């Protein structure tokens, strides 16, 4: 099926390891200012966390139907846990990295922390479907006059994902009713390059720092280092005439994203209380684990290089 070209609005979904969000821009806005991008603001119920993305967590009812996503899923699951009604529910968090594994296929299963399983494509499709509905509602709230057939959908994926993982993502998106001629799966480093081309502050200097160089002039080559929550993608692009990009070195990288910092925190806490005790805490008190990560995320977001070596105070959950 050929791609349609005459779209009035582009909607992009960034399905991340730790956080997920969306943005959109109308054709008129883009023609006036390419950086006029509309984004959602999400608020966590605790921890004082405000972000343009929400936590990549999804909650399903005991019968397997979708209940909630993001901070709402975290908060509702916490309430269930406090009332001891959580055991039959399906709660998934930070599950995107499971798709980085080998031998991915459409029958691949995701597991909750307590071992309950659900098809990965079902989980991902539910998340994308929720974000699609949320985005369309936001568009209508802003009185943007477009129909669903006027929307180009863009979903970003890591460049280092296997073809099988990318195909699973495509199938999951299409299950939500987004047809293939309205959908683009964009590699995350390419999406970053396209944004940087429009940022006025992006400039390079010559090797001797005497002359400014047009970063994205035709023929220019540059490295893209995309450090995300789960993975780091490194690739090299060449700028072509007409605003096009060419990948001149295959994407490389690994699972070295921001969650590695979280793992280091957990290893530190484990060294204090012992491996068995900490693993019991992680497996049996998910709400406290969520609270711990929320508080740590606030610390990470406010950390500056000048703070290196200084003491940081982190409040631990009461149950810990």
TrEMBL record:
InterPro entries: ATPase_NBD (IPR043129), Hsp_70_fam (IPR013126). Gene3D superfamilies: 3.30.420.40. Keywords: ATP-binding, Nucleotide-binding, Stress response. One of its GO terms (molecular function) is ATP binding. Belongs to the heat shock protein 70 family. This is Heat shock 70 kDa protein.
